[in-house]
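---------- Forwarded message ----------

FYI, see the Branched-chain amino acid ABC transporter permease record below. Original note from H. follows.
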Amino acid sequence: MATETTKSIFWRGVRDGAPFILVIIPFSTLFGVVATEAGLSVFETLTMSVLVIAGAAQFTAVELLRNDVPTVIALVSALAVNLRMAMYSASLTPYLGKATLGQRAWAAYFLVDQTFACSVLKFEQNPDWTIGQRLTYFFAVAVPICPLWYLFTVIGALIGNSIPESFALDFAIPITFLALIAPMLRTRAHLAAAFVSVVAALLLNGLVYNLGLLVAGILGMMAGAQVELIDSLRKEREGGA
């Protein structure tokens, strides 16, 4: 509600972002380990996390480079994985578009899966929030997430191969995305995009340079867009009937 104080909204955002700590810690630690195994120094690993701050894209780039994939393919694949950020940005524009340029620049930097997933749901539930209240919530969600991403990236890079394989830190990757995506599958278009991309990724897993992931993402977006178009046309016909 508009009568909520900035302080209460801030702490609500922190509380909503806090559960992701359970996966951010192993996720970022694992990235630090993988990056150093791929030949990056501790400083280079931290720099990548600070500048890119996109776990899935970072893992994609490092894994491909570690497998001697051409740099251009690694960069294109990482950018493709991060194309979802453009869609996130478009979804948040109606809520944050009137913020100042500086505020939007910082919001763009901290636009990650967790801040988007939490914020878009809260913005929909609280349409009367002001720009200031929305920005407060958005940045508050990032408070328990982003600093830990940087910190445990360094820790992972420092301890490297000393982590026993029995710890299975890689569990954090699928769990993180399941936790983020599942609550957002609310329409037929969302479900179609998810289903097609998953099936395509499995079927195209053998493509060279891991291009199956890129193709699966494109096919998923096409399927979602087609279903959304069909649903829109059906609603128009029903409305005109």
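H. also flagged this: The mean pLDDT is 84.
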